[in-house]
């Protein structure tokens, strides 16, 4: 929306020494009549509006345009009033602000000085005016009097103190240096106050560092370079640990030495070269000795191998011999068993034959009656294909009384041979078989 015409804007008035534009134009009136009217100015002054003054006509557009022009004018007047209503500081406010800032800074510094933090594995000890207080604190945030009380944090966990470049003179007058000696130690919490009170918070300097120098020099002064550098070097750390712990048990109970590690000392260059040459020769000697041991071991291995082979052959022969002996014994037992069985069979057969013969004899005794013998005689005569005549023949048959028993026995044998044994000589003579 545009600016109103210049005719609608009032003039500038001066009121109370301030130049201000009037925000409310005079309401236009009808020009009829010669009346004059008094108009109060925006600055409190009064001016007379004569009828001769030409009043511009209202702008075209009606009431809506008039309201828009008034609203725009009010906005401009509000901005101008706000710019003119600025606060002017009173005298002395700057000094009060500076004092407040100083007080706040002091309080902040005091608070930062009062609060402090103790790390885990540490114990806090406090000093006031240089005097050690009896109170201690554990890990966490704590408060103390600012600018008066100070604190130190003492570690109670495992820590490693390094003592560097420690000189040491041997019994032969050679000066050697240990580059680094490490002492692993820890402090018991209940002993923190007493140790700090007696040896300050830097107790390790008095109890460990100085003691390492003293004990190492004591050790070197009674041993040669050969012993310190080579022969007894592996015992230095243990000796230092025992010596330190023995003194600390008396002087500072609660400080525990966990371990001591000693590096190889630095010796003069010429001596070091001699030692290197000696070590080289010793290495060659060890190599030769090892080769000799290898050869001996190989020979021993071959001997043991041959011995094992011989023992194996002997054991195999012994096993074979035992096997053969067992076979022979088995065969012997088998033969004995077979002989016993054969003897038993033969004995049984002989007993059976004897029994059979006895029974046959008994049967023949019952069977060979005179009548039966006479019958058999006639059968035998009848069976002969030849008949002999002479003076002896009748005797053969007629001499019955003298040869009856002999004839009976021969006849019995003949009968027995007929059963399975074959004809006897008497039967052959009796029958005269060709």
From TrEMBL:
Its main location: endoplasmic reticulum. It comes from the Eukaryota. Pfam families: Band_7. GO terms for molecular function: cholesterol binding; ubiquitin protein ligase binding. The keyword Endoplasmic reticulum applies. SMART domains: PHB (SM00244). It is found in: Endoplasmic reticulum membrane. GO terms for biological process: cholesterol metabolic process; negative regulation of cholesterol biosynthetic process; negative regulation of fatty acid biosynthetic process; SREBP signaling pathway. Signal peptide: none annotated. Residues 113-279 form the Band domain. Residues 19-65 are annotated as: Disordered. Keywords: Cholesterol metabolism, Endoplasmic reticulum, Glycoprotein, Lipid metabolism, Membrane, Signal-anchor, Steroid metabolism, Sterol metabolism, Transmembrane, Transmembrane helix. GO terms for cellular component: endoplasmic reticulum membrane; protein-containing complex. It is a single-pass type II membrane protein. Belongs to the band 7/mec-2 family. This is ER lipid raft associated 2.
């Amino acid at each position: 929306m545009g600016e109103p015409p210049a005719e609608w804007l009032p003039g500038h008035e001066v009121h109370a020494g301030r130049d201000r534009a009037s925000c409310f134009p005079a309401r236009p009136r009808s020009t009829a009549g010669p009346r004059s009217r008094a108009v109060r100015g925006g600055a409190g002054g009064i001016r007379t509006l004569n009828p001769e003054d030409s009043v511009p006509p209202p702008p075209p557009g009606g009431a809506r345009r008039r309201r828009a022009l008034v609203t725009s004018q009010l906005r401009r007047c509000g901005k101008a009033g706000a710019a003119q209503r600025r606060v002017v500081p009173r005298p002395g406010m700057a000094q009060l602000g500076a004092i407040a800032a100083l007080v706040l800074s002091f309080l902040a510094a005091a608070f930062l000085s009062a609060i402090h933090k103790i790390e885990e594995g540490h114990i806090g000890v406090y000093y006031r005016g240089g005097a050690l207080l009896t109170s201690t604190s554990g890990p966490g945030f704590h408060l103390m009097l600012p600018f008066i009380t100070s604190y130190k944090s003492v570690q109670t966990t495992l820590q490693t103190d390094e003592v560097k470049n420690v000189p040491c003179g041997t019994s032969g007058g050679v000066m050697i240096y240990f580059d680094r000696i490490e002492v692993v130690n820890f402090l018991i919490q209940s002993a923190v106050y007493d140790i700090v009170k007696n040896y300050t918070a830097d107790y390790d300097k008095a109890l460990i560092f100085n003691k390492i120098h003293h004990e190492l020099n004591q050790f070197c002064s009674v041993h040669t370079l050969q012993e310190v550098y080579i022969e007894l070097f592996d015992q230095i750390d243990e000796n230092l640990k025992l010596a330190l712990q023995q003194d600390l048990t008396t002087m500072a109970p609660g400080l525990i030495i966990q371990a001591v590690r000693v590096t190889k000392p630095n010796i003069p260059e010429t001596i070091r070269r001699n030692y290197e040459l000696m070590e080289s020769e010793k290495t060659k000697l060890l190599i030769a000795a090892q080769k000799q041991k290898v050869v001996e071991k190989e020979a021993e291995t071959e001997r043991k191998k041959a011995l094992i082979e011989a023992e194996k052959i002997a054991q195999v022969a012994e096993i074979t011999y035992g096997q053969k002996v067992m076979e022979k014994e088995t065969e012997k037992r088998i033969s004995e068993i077979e002989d016993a069985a054969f003897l038993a069979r033969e004995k049984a057969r002989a007993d059976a034959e004897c029994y059979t013969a006895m029974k046959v004899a008994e049967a023949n005794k019952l069977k060979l009656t005179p009548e039966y013998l006479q019958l058999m005689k006639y059968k035998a005569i009848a069976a002969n294909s030849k008949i002999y005549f002479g003076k002896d023949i009748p005797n053969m048959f007629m001499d019955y009384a003298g040869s009856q028993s002999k004839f009976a026995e021969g006849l019995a044998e003949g009968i027995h041979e007929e059963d399975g044994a074959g004809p006897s000589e008497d039967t052959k003579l009796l029958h005269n078989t060709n």
